[in-house]
Amino acid sequence: MVGEEQELYAGRWVARLRGRIVAQGGTPEQARRAAQSRYKENPEITFMPTTFPLTFSPLVDSVRGALPRGISVYLIGGAVRDALLGRPTHDLDFAVERDAIRLARKVADDLGADFYPLDPERDTGRVLVGNPDGSRTMLDFAVFRGADLEADIRGRDFTLNAIAYDLNDNTLHDPLGGAMDLKEKRLKACSPTAFSDDPVRILRGVRLAAQFGFHILPEARQAMKAAVGRLDTISAERLRDEFFRILGGPQPAACLRALDLLGALGKVLPELPALKGVEQIPPHVHDVWDHTLAVVSHLDGILAALRPEYDPDSASDLLNGLLVMRIGRYRSQIGAALATEFVPDRTLRSLLFLGTLYHDVAKPQSKKADETGQIHFWEHDQRGAEVVADRARRLALSKDEIDRLETLVRNHMRIHFHTDRLAREAKPPTRRAIYRFFRDTGSAGVDLCLLGLADLRATYEQTLPQETWASALDVVRMLLEAWFERREEQVAPPVLLDGNDLMHELSLKPGPLIGKLLEAIREAQAVGSVSDRDQALVYIRDWMKANT
User: Fold this and answer.
1) Alpha-carbon distance 545 to 536, whole Å?
2) Chain centroid to CA 526: how far?
3) CB 242 within 8 A of CB 200
4) Which of 102, 185, 217, 435 has a C-alpha 20 to 30 A away from that of 326?
5) Where do the domains of the chain lie?
6) Between the CA of residue 156 and those of 84, 198, 221, 438, 499, what are the distances in Å?
7) What's the pLDDT tens digit per position in 254-312?
8) Which 8-state DSSP code applies to residue 22?
């Protein structure tokens, strides 16, 4: 009987009368109220441990050891959720009744960690603990947002994030039934006003549903739709940060479609709704909007097939199987490149997905019919680069991120040009073409290879000829080989002459010509025409005779 009770009430508080369980709840108060609604006697309230031990970061024990006596501290939010799901977690959020900043400073002192007051007005402090790999774990300490712990919990976003763990006695406080929602895989808001109180939760809800494979309850979806109009009141920075988490998470295409159905996507990226219904000619099988989502989906699949911890199941279809065979040897380099951050917490992977969303953004205004009625989208890549740069500035992205997005959109047709030339004329990219590709795109050239492959698959879908796909893979393989294996030879040759050398040897004055001459030498090195200083001088003298 004891074992049955343990399993039935695991993680809950129970009320006992004369040794018999008469009521239960998510908190001691809930269990007591439930019992007293039926019995006049005062019940014994105890916590029933979970059926498996909750595993937290070792930092939780460190915090526990640093706590002054008599202080109740609760771990709350994602760390508790992840422990119940048996998943690893990173940052930790703690809730206390009072003096959160003072407590955070003491924990930082005890751990030898960095500290700063995150929000003095709301008594919130942050501790930054360094990890052996150079990363840092954030420990946030905040006072209750409300009169007590339960009020704090009820003011949070979703029930799966509204479970508290008491560091003093290892009990759970779950007044909203978040643990059961986790078990049933349902996403439920903590209150009817959760989304109107903070509309960013609309984006977060979509992300969490994709991340955990949860179903958004109908009442939550209705509340999301009702609060969409309030997204206009949210700062661009908050929208950007939550949206980047979506782009960096699982199933970005499904998330984008869900946001669109909710009416929220156009609030974040207003240029995208205009893509709907813009028809394209064969070999395209989608309009521009559905094509864009398909590119995002195929890009996600390609990256899954190329991730460093390669899973054969993710390359189960024939085309991705060929992809892994041709360029799979670069999976570690690609993974490292996409994990790079220009700005903390915003990876190049997320930026690549944003560029993908905007690669055809200028097609609606670029659509033209020639004298035969044939549809063209001339210069949509150049115009699109301007559009994405403007949106990036409005999202307060860094200059490096803006430049990267411009480069992606402006150059996204180049892979298709080389693929078509190889497929139709059996002409692979020359060393000069490879050099110029990376001269114009830099490290974003790797991203463009991946975008180009995803774009090709979304263009044809099931009608994609295997020969065309093979040509695209050959083009990408040659480009990646140049970047990762032959960079000094084909992409960034060593300096043979600098500007001062040219001015001295050729009796030139400073000016734009010097830059042109240096570029001509670099290109000659890349194509194999020049290999040493003397050859460079001979070459540049001949070049000047022919070009001046």
Assistant:
1) 14
2) 35
3) yes
4) 435
5) 2-47, 58-184, 192-268, 276-490, 494-547
6) 18, 10, 17, 48, 61
7) 999 999 999 999 999 999 999 999 999 999 999 999 999 999 999 999 999 998 776 66
8) E
